[in-house]
Structure formats: structure tokens, C-alpha cells
Amino acid sequence: MQITFENIHKHTHLMIENDLYQHYHFPEMLSRYDSNYIEFKAFPTLENLKEAEGYLRNFHRKNGQKHVKFKFPANEKVPAELVNYLNQKYYDIGFLELYAINPNQFPEVKDHPDIEVQIVTEQNLKAFLAFQYQQDIMFGSNFANQKVVLNRKIFEEPNFMQLLALYKGTPAGAVEVIISEETAEIDNLGVDEAFQRKGIGSRIQKFVMDIFHDKTVILVADGQDTPKEMYKRQNYQYLGYQYYTQKVED
User: Fold this and answer.
1) 3-state class percentages of the chain: helix first, strand second, coil last, to nearest 5
2) Which of 29, 59, 165, 216 has the maximal Cβ count within 10 Å?
3) In 10 A of CB 156, how many CB atoms?
4) Distances (CA, A) of 116 to 113, 161, 164
5) DSSP code of residue 6
């Protein structure tokens, strides 16, 4: 099958769709930028961008949100005119990269006696939520508390699987897997800073590969961050990119 950004799950709700864009809103977690944004179907003119900017800013302000975020069409560079305007208005501009792998292509990873990967159940849900809270608190208590609610909701969803990794019995890493008919999407993969470089991230991924050996495993990585280099070394195939822009206003 052909994998595109359309295969990536969105933690959000479609509010409005027109010929130019889709407006996504997630009242369950207003502070999550990745769930509250406008995605353009085609590149807007500068005038169209300004109109969308005004609309989204007003909509967010009514909901107590301080950010504005746009996603642009995949696999296309942002026109210079738009880049100049966004830079003038102090937007951050970044891009995401899409990767996929057939599980049998993932490098061999040997078991380690100190590392255990568990599927999250009622028995270890509290430990999973506590670990995720500690990872999210750096973004503020409001964000971290809302994420707990979201993680509890995800736990109840049949097409999601949450995993918790332990190092010598201590929670050290986690991930959520979004399951569809043909793909298993790795999302929110994280290892606590104190336990990095011990092979925990690789063993979490290998656990996913073993469970979903009959699916294509997919993920999105920050195009400007180092984890994408790890994915390349692990035989993931690069499939494309998508630019986005955002800023937080006072």
C-alpha cells in the first residue's frame, strides 16, 4: 500500500472544511498545538493566509488558546512570499518527516534482563500515567493534567495500544500504537532522560514489530530533531515531508 500523511492519526475533530483548508479543534486538550490547527489543502495566497490567520486567532482566543498553527501540503516547499511574511510575524517554521518499515526489516534486538516491555492494562495503568505525567510536566501542569485525561481515554479505545518499558523495575519509557487494518503507527515514543542510551527505545520498537508483524509500521519524526537519524539506521524508509508553522501569542 502507498503510505502518506493521510495514514497518520489525528487526535482532534474536524470543525470546518472548505475548498482551501480544514480546521481541526480538540476541546478535550486546548493546549495541545498538534490537535488545534488549520491544514491547507493547497498553498494559500498571502491574502488567504492572512484571512485564515485572523479567523484562527479569533477562534482560539474565544477558547482561551494563545497559539496559531498551520500545516501545509505534503512534499511541497513553502513559497518564499509566505516564508517572508511568517518570518516577519515571528512564526516558527518546521517540518515533519514520514517513515515506514516492514517489521521483518527491523534490526535484530536481543533481550536484555534489565529491560521489560509491558502492554498497559488496569494493573499498570497508574504507573504508565505517572510516567507520562513526568514527561509532560515540562510543558506546564495544565498540559500535563490534560494529557492524563487524554491518556485515560486512549486506554479505553480498542484501536490503541499503550506500552510501558521498565528498567530494573522502574518505568523508563513508553509509547502508544495506533492500529488500523494495514498499519501500526508508533506515536509519542519516549524514554526518560535518566535511562537513555540503554537500548530501551529499540526494545520498545522491537516489541511493536513482533506484535504487528503483519502490518506496516509507520511514524512521523521531527525533521529537525535527532531521533530521525535513529530511524534511518533502523531501516525505516523515508516517505516524505510536511511543513508547518506556529507561534504563541501573549
Assistant:
1) 35, 30, 30
2) 165
3) 7
4) 8, 16, 8
5) G
Cα 90 from chain centroid (whole Å) = 23
pLDDT digits (tens, 9 = 90+) for 25-45: 999 999 999 999 999 999 999
Whole-number Å distance between alpha carbons of 10 and 24: 9
Given a contact cutoff of 8 angstroms between Cβ atoms, the answer to whether 11 and 34 are in contact is yes
Q: Where are the beta strands (DSSP E) in 26-137?
A: 37-40, 67-71, 92-101, 115-119
Note the pLDDT of residue 62. 97
d(CA 129, CA 135): 10
pTM summary value: 0.94
Q: How far apart are CA 38 and CA 23, in angstroms?
A: 4
**What confidence score (pLDDT) does residue 97 get?**
96
Task: Go through 163-173 and write b for each residue having 16 or more CB atoms within 10 A of its CB, e for each that does not.
Answer: bbbbbeeebbb
Q: Is the pLDDT of residue 227 over 80?
A: no
Is residue 198 predicted with pLDDT exceeding 90? yes
Secondary structure element (H or E) that encloses residue 143, with its range: helix 141-156
Q: DSSP secondary-structure letter at 239?
A: E
